[in-house]
Design brief:
The chain is α/β, with parallel strands linked by helices. The protein has helices at about 20-30, 45-50, 70-75, 95-100, 165-170, 175-180, 190-200, 205-220, 250-260, 270-275, 280-285; strands at about 10-15, 35-40, 55-60, 80-85, 105-110, 125-130, 140-145, 225-230, 240-245, 265, 290, 320-324. The protein binds pyridoxal-5'-phosphate.
Amino acid sequence: MSPTWPWTGRPHRLLASGRQALAWLVTGVMPPRARVLCPACMCGSVAAGIAAAGAEAVFYSQDSALHPRWDELAAAPADAVLLVHPLGRRLPVAPVRALKRQRPDLVVVEDISHTLLNRAPLIGVDFAFASLRKLLPVADGGVAIDCRGRPLPEAPPASPAPSPFVRKRLAGDPSAEDDLDAWGGPPDGIWEGTLRALAALEPAALRRARRRRYRQLAELAAGPDVVPLWPRLPDGVAPLALPLRCRNRHDLRRRLQREGVAAQPYWPVPEAARDAAGIPGRLLAGTLLLVMCAPGGQALGTGSGVRPARGRAAAPARGGIARA
Ligand SMILES: Cc1ncc(COP(=O)(O)O)c(C=O)c1O
């Protein structure tokens, strides 16, 4: 496999999905029924991985850059914290290191699903995991990484035949996502076909392609009422999506669709995030359009490949922490 994947040279386990990789970490390295701090604004499937491992998701609020409110994390009674690097932008290193110094008891897990192709995808405090199909042109896959260099528990071996999820996904059947949403059982091995595809991919070339695409999309979407949320694309970042604020995201979405460009009119946050103060829930629901930066990942087989999260969580207290 390419020497530049973030798991190369670190103890890791490959499983069939991101949520399974997360469940694997929760079961393997956290105390039973752990309390895991999670960003209120994240994909609900992540909460599914936590619940499947018998742990409890407790939501924290974020600022408009989708960064945690670090003080809140330091004070929260919990066993672990999940940090999601959003849409290709890695969270800043200093507050993560400071948090670990303040709270050495807190297990830090980074979700690198959106930064996998970055030159520097993770901070590397304790553990990381990713959904491979979010950013890469593969049909399934999740990876759990131990950044401390210690061995992880064994995971199921790679499966020689595609799972029903993968078969449906390759056939473009949108109900594949329902299968994964309903998942709650034992973890599955990654498909061997995905491993072969991974070995053939070149992360640096994919990163360049995504950066080119981001710029093309920004030009295509430009208009008097369209404002890029993050106009600068930092060096080394392979973006998952181009987030745009616009007066009417449905009009813009239709305009882009006519050009053959997939865009998502919502961010699939858990119900918990929708009304929370202190997180950009209203912003995301009201004015934001995510234009997916294919090539690779996300759109393979199932349209946008993303569905709104089902409500599995209670709303956080205003600007504070809430239990799932
Ligand atoms: C940031 C992030 N992490 C993890 C996941 C879960 O990955 P998977 O669908 O492979 O279980 C998703 C969405 O699916 C996601 O958006």
